[in-house]
Amino acid sequence: MPHQSKPYRKSRNHDKKGGGRRLILSEEQKRQFDDLLVRTGLTFENRKLLIQAFTHSSYVNEHRLYAATDNERLEFLGDAVLELAVSQYLYKKYKNMSEGDMTKLRASIVCEPSLARFATELEFGKLVLLGKGEEVTGGRVRPALLADVFEGFIGALYLDQGLDAVYLFLSQTMYPKINEGAFSHKMDFKSQLQEFIQRDGLGVLQYVIVQERGPAHDREFVSEVQLNGTPLGDGIGRSKKEAEQLAAKLALEKLNANTRSR
């Protein structure tokens, strides 16, 4: 494609080298991409990257476009960028969490169901460029496809503006969900602790928020889990749920250690 071409420029010409066609967007499709940037507060220096992130291979094949204009390569890159961005966030946030636990938590975040939910919340589905066959079979709402689009979008954002832009975007979309404990069910220490206590008939558990500290925008909660009124473990988190999970995790570690030493 000539370097002076605009992202939305229409052309009926075939590529002289590869025989592929240029991507042609309707006015409605252009408007939807503009709306996405307004909603997210983002700008793209290279809008072709943005559009490519939403271009499914079925659309490329059906419209005989350049083979490299679908989102598969961006998806590959975005997956790696997400792994790094989430790994760094977890490393800094959970200073006492083990490597194994961070790996499990990251896997629950960077996975198809989670990424598909983020894509749905951002209304990515309605922007995807699909072939007719993929469209009629429900591709626009298929979790696997939406997760791929989210990864492609992250890859495009990284290429256009770098890691800092990715971190900023995730701080508005993904990181708050982590802080809220949205993925703690994958590491549900409270349930594990409850099962341990019930199995051995040890008594009654209770969680108490013993302290709240910090300004409203950077609040920390300290939770204490008690067994029959006796403190068993405590945890510090950005939300009450997170603090309770970490308190339960510490309690489990203590109980398991006691069991092994008997």
Q: How far apart are the termini?
A: 72 Å
Question: CATH fold name of the largest domain, please?
Answer: Ribonuclease iii, N-terminal Endonuclease Domain, Chain A
User: What's the total number of strands?
Assistant: 3
Write out the CATH superfamily name of the largest domain.
Ribonuclease III domain
Give the helix proportion (percent range).
Answer: 40-55%
How would you classify the helix and strand content by structural class?
A: mainly alpha
Succession of helices and strands? HHHHHHHHHHHEEEH
User: Looking across the biggest beta sheet, what order are the strands in?
Assistant: 1-2-3
CATH class of the largest domain: Mainly Alpha
What is the overall shape?
Answer: elongated
> How many domains comprise the coordinates?
2
* Cα Rg: 24 Å
Average of per-residue pLDDT values: 86
Beta-strand percentage? 5-15%
Q: Give start-end ranges of low-pLDDT stretches.
A: 1-18
What can you tell me about this protein's structure?
Helices cover 55% and strands 10% of the residues. It is mainly alpha-helical and 262 residues long. The protein folds into 2 domains: 27-179, Orthogonal Bundle (Ribonuclease iii, N-terminal Endonuclease Domain, Chain A), CATH 1.10.1520; 188-261, Double Stranded RNA Binding Domain. Strands 1-2-3 form a 3-stranded antiparallel sheet, covered by helices on one side.
